[in-house]
């Protein structure tokens, strides 16, 4: 998932906070995940303010009490580094939320897709430009350590937008 809409400026880029719209969009994404029956078992979240705030609104709206792992490295990670972080997740983790920044999240979603998933989700993801609050849901049939290019099936794509 890409973080929700953030302020254009902050004391530093790392400290940019979500806008009111961003908070509502993240909550809308959480409500969508709950409606889809998706329950996170682990979360790897960039340590930036906007991703922390996205996680808070998302997880609250989804009804999750899960503690996220906030990772400083995910803030500036490229897609290969983000993939390495996912590969280090415990094999007994069934559902993982990865929450970070663009262009990394968009590139990673494209890299992981094996082309055999939901055609409507794939078309929506490709056409979207991966805006703020975009999330891609994948099925993975291998241990996290074996995750690589074209090893996951896209099952859903959604952009959280509040009322």
UniProtKB/TrEMBL annotation:
Keywords linked to the UniProt accession: Hydrolase
**UniProt xrefs under Gene3D superfamilies:** Phosphoglycerate mutase-like
- Residue ranges annotated as coiled coil are none
Q: Does the keyword Nucleotide-binding apply?
A: no
Work out whether the entry's keyword set contains Iron-sulfur: no
The record's section on InterPro entries has: His_Pase_superF_clade-1, His_PPase_superfam, Mito_Ser/Thr_phosphatase
GO MF annotation: an example: hydrolase activity
- Region Disordered, as annotated, extends over 1-20
What the entry lists under CDD domains is as follows: HP_PGM_like (cd07067)
| Pfam families (UniProt xref) | His_Phos_1
- PANTHER family from the xrefs? PHOSPHOGLYCERATE MUTASE-RELATED (PTHR20935), SLL1549 PROTEIN (PTHR20935:SF1)
Q: What is this protein called?
A: Histidine phosphatase family protein
Species assigned in the record? Nocardioides luti
